[in-house]
Amino acid sequence: MLVYLMRHGKAERSATWDEGRELTVEGVLQNRSVIKKLFSRSPIIDKGFVSPFERAKQTAADFHLVFPGVELEETRLLIPQSDPYDVLNLLEEKQDHHLILIAHNPLLSRLFSLLVDGTTEGARQVETSNALCIMMDIIAPGCGELKYVLSHD
Fold first, then answer.
1. What is the pTM (predicted TM-score) of this model?
2. Which terminus of the chain, N or C, has less C-beta within 10 A?
């Protein structure tokens, strides 16, 4: 199974509520750059899951323009404070697919550490507008192998 983690681009610093924070113009451009780099690698992606927060949905919209055949589904499992073990369960349920998860920190960094290091307390970071590819033959903590990281630079 291939799991792609993508963190949204630079977002507004504040909004009336966190769920409504939108991407800045810079964040949109960052995302588009990373999505273009991802496309150039001809990734295998069958399905995607997206946080319902506005900045993740904006990222997913740009992703869908480049990858129109990938079905994207919103889930609250990908909000910033979600439990990475719940996401691991989702991966296990969908292990016949290659998935992209479009979400936020601290969730993505904790999930990255869980998948590769076997702990949520690792020092791994998913920066804004990063896309990571993790290969997992077994869906379990510490069984992932980081294949590559794409950034907007």
1. 0.95
2. C
127: domain CATH number is 3.40.50.1240
Running DSSP on this structure, what letter comes out for residue 11? B
Cα of first residue to Cα of last residue in the chain, in angstroms, is 27
Phi, psi of 74 (to 5 degrees): -75, 145
Give the model confidence (pLDDT) of 48-97 as tens digits. 999 999 999 999 999 999 999 999 999 999 999 999 999 999 999 999 99
Q: Cα–Cα distances in Å, from 8 out to 126, 133, 140? A: 10, 15, 25
Instruction: Count the domains in the chain.
Output: 1
Pair of tokens at residue 17:
């509520």
**Does residue 69 contact residue 32 with C-beta atoms inside 8 Å?**
no
- Residue 84, beta-bridge partner list: none
| CA–CA distance, 71 with 81 (Å, rounded to integer) | 24
